[in-house]
Automatic annotation (TrEMBL):
Pfam family, one: Clp_N
Signal peptide bounds: none
Entry keyword annotation includes Isomerase: no
Protein name per its UniProtKB record: Peptidase
Keyword Repeat listed: yes
Residue ranges occupied by any Clp R domain in the UniProt entry: 2-184
PROSITE patterns the record matches: CLP_R (PS51903)
Length: 184
């Protein structure tokens, strides 16, 4: 499938691997794909993101992702569902961090999934890449571009899609932004 990726999409995948390496994560996640996308300039996805979010989008998105990592990757919807069952995720996070230090629930450090020196892709990241192919095919595009990766991230659910939606980046808004011609 990787041979069908444009240079821009390949750069996003490579950038996500670099994010995983820098943070010591055992696997490449959807979060890493999003952070790599946010680093891109002069691509279709970057243009769509610029049109949908203020120019200072990266710090706000990174902060929202870090907050979710502190909650062990639970989305706000997950935390609210647990709260409905009488489980206060915020209190649990506070107690764990009090005992073990800030970010103790963040996980993702080198461990069982990191043996060969190469990062594997999490189920979530694989799903995003597979969806990007399906989206490209549905749009009758010959190659998978970084815009397809962005569209796929908006549809996977969970923390990444929640953070994107909080910043006005939804499948519908990205599609509308992509329909505007981009000067390169």
């Amino acid at each position: 499938m990787f041979e069908r990726f444009t240079q821009d999409a390949r750069a996003v995948v490579k950038g996500s691997v670099e994010y995983a390496e820098r943070t010591g994560s055992a696997t490449v996640t959807g979060e890493h794909l999003l952070l790599a996308l946010l680093d891109r300039e002069d691509t279709r996805a970057a243009a769509a993101l610029r049109g949908l979010c203020p120019s200072d989008r990266r710090p706000a998105v990174a902060a929202a992702l870090a907050d979710a990592r502190r909650r062990a990757g639970l989305s706000r919807a997950d935390a609210e569902a647990l709260e409905g069952l009488g489980i206060d995720v915020g209190a649990i996070v506070a107690r764990v961090e009090e005992a073990h230090g800030r970010g103790a629930l963040a996980g993702g450090r080198r461990g069982a999934g990191w043996r060969s020196g190469r990062r594997s892709f999490s189920r979530e990241a694989k799903t995003v890449l597979e969806k990007s192919l399906r989206i490209a095919l549905a749009r009758k595009d010959r190659e998978i571009g970084d815009e397809h990766v962005l569209l796929a991230l908006t549809t996977t659910g969970g923390v990444v899609a929640e953070v994107l939606a909080d910043h006005g980046v939804t499948y519908t808004s990205v599609e509308a932004a992509l329909s505007v011609p981009v000067a390169r």
